[in-house]
């Protein structure tokens, strides 16, 4: 089996594709490939992982479909709460890059909240929802920790450094599972300023994204020098959706933690136009975010030390601050 191939996409840009086959025996080789991808594009596709398996990924998508098929009044019983970063929202997430709401609905779940009011109750969720989502989070977490151990060693930290920083059953955990549903928009032509998900970077250390074959739309844009910047280039590369593969991207938190060595890149999801495949798209993201009390400091000390709680709070404030500035500039008052 080929350990790794680099595939050229339609815009002739390289998308690193990395096989996890025989991970333990091939760890050195896989580490080299992952670090190269993280230092350059900040983005890579994993395949051949044992867990979560293709059938487990298919199963969680079925559960997500069932959840999003529930009446809005039921889903709305667990509304999105900004401070907890948990709950359901629809057509409400505004990105600084667009100033317009994403055309989607999503639910965010945190493992340690599974028996609390920040999780849909059993009556307000499809049968088996809690078991399936918590078990999927456990698998995504274990794989993420294997991957993050590679970054820890490369930064000169102990192999289990990020493991100790991401303890998902503690009350200050911040890692999040997000189920996303982009509605069927067959026959609707949205203005070009509308996106299923507007361009953004993720706030976390590492995102694992699952997609389904045929439900394309994700695009990436490498080329960002500092984790605090909004700047982005204009070269966007489509990423073909493939069931079972895992699209990984570095988030701002790991970019900061690595003194900007590992790149957090902009990405977005297109609104397909009339004549294209406009059916629903489902995706699932697992965001690894360090526990609130963990201190973030890179080996070169490029940025002041801050806790992961402060880090996320500042990132959220920068995000909303930018939106409010845009509103003020366009003469609208902020909410
Ligand atoms: O649905 C996707 O492919 C991307 C979702 C995403 O980027 C996010 O939720 O941060
Ligand atoms: Fe994202």
UniProtKB/TrEMBL annotation:
<feature type="domain" description="Fe2OG dioxygenase">
    <location>
        <begin position="172"/>
        <end position="290"/>
    </location>
</feature>
<dbReference type="Pfam" id="PF03171">
    <property type="entry name" value="2OG-FeII_Oxy"/>
</dbReference>
<dbReference type="Pfam" id="PF14226">
    <property type="entry name" value="DIOX_N"/>
</dbReference>
<keyword id="KW-0479">Metal-binding</keyword>
<keyword id="KW-0560">Oxidoreductase</keyword>
<dbReference type="InterPro" id="IPR027443">
    <property type="entry name" value="IPNS-like_sf"/>
</dbReference>
<keyword id="KW-0408">Iron</keyword>
<protein>
    <recommendedName>
        <fullName>Fe2OG dioxygenase domain-containing protein</fullName>
    </recommendedName>
</protein>
<dbReference type="InterPro" id="IPR050231">
    <property type="entry name" value="Iron_ascorbate_oxido_reductase"/>
</dbReference>
<comment type="similarity">
    <text>Belongs to the iron/ascorbate-dependent oxidoreductase family.</text>
</comment>
<dbReference type="InterPro" id="IPR044861">
    <property type="entry name" value="IPNS-like_FE2OG_OXY"/>
</dbReference>
<dbReference type="InterPro" id="IPR005123">
    <property type="entry name" value="Oxoglu/Fe-dep_dioxygenase_dom"/>
</dbReference>
<dbReference type="InterPro" id="IPR026992">
    <property type="entry name" value="DIOX_N"/>
</dbReference>
């Amino acid at each position: 089996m080929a350990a790794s191939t680099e595939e050229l996409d339609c815009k002739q840009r390289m998308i690193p594709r990395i096989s996890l086959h025989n991970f333990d025996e091939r760890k050195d080789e896989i580490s080299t490939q992952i670090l190269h991808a993280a230092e350059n594009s900040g983005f890579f596709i994993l395949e051949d992982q044992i867990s979560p398996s293709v059938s487990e990924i298919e199963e969680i998508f079925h559960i997500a479909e069932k959840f999003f098929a529930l009446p809005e009044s039921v889903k709305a019983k667990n509304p999105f709460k900004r401070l907890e970063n948990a709950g359901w929202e629809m057509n409400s997430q505004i990105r600084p890059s667009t100033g317009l709401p994403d055309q989607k609905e999503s639910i965010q779940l945190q493992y340690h909240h599974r028996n609390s009011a920040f999780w849909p109750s059993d009556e307000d969720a499809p049968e088996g929802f809690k078991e399936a989502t918590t078990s999927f989070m456990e698998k995504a977490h274990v794989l993420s920790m294997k991957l993050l151990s590679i970054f820890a060693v490369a930064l000169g930290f102990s192999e289990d450094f990020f493991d100790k920083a991401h303890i998902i059953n503690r009350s200050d955990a911040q890692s999040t599972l997000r189920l996303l549903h982009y509605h069927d928009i067959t026959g609707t032509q949205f203005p070009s300023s509308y996106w299923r998900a507007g361009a953004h970077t993720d706030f976390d250390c590492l995102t694992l994204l699952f997609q389904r074959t045929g439900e394309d739309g994700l695009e990436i844009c490498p080329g960002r020098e500092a984790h605090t910047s909004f700047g982005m280039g204009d070269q966007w590369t489509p990423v073909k959706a493939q069931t079972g593969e895992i699209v990984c991207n570095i988030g701002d938190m790991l970019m900061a933690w690595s003194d900007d060595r590992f790149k957090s890149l902009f990405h977005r999801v297109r609104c397909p136009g009339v004549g294209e495949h406009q059916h629903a798209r489902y995706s699932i993201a697992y965001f690894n975010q360090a526990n609130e009390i963990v201190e973030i400091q890179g080996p070169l000390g490029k940025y002041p030390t801050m806790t992961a709680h402060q880090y996320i709070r500042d990132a959220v404030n920068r995000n909303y601050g930018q939106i409010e500035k845009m509103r003020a500039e366009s003469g609208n008052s902020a909410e």
